[in-house]
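Project standup — Tuesday

K.O.: blocked on the structure for the chain from last sprint. Re-posting the sequence here as requested.
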Amino acid sequence: MEYKYGKLRGRIIERYGSLSNFATVIGLSMTSLSKKMTGKAGFSQGDIETWSGLLGIEKSEYGIYFFT
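H.V.: unblocked you, prediction finished:
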């Protein structure tokens, strides 16, 4: 299954100005972040919880951002 992360990308840019800034905050290289955002690497439960906390995403919204 292929997921689309456009809404997640928008939220990151809205909150952090760029994917690069967000990558720095979460301690990932841009390569690693890019792989997650393009579906080449998956999100762990920990990733989802950490990212959601930083992005102000409620548990009830996980599906909208991470599973569409």
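K.O.: great, moving the ticket to review. The helical segments are 6-16, 19-26, 30-37, 45-55, 62-66. Residues 6-66 form a domain with the 434 Repressor (Amino-terminal Domain) fold (CATH 1.10.260).
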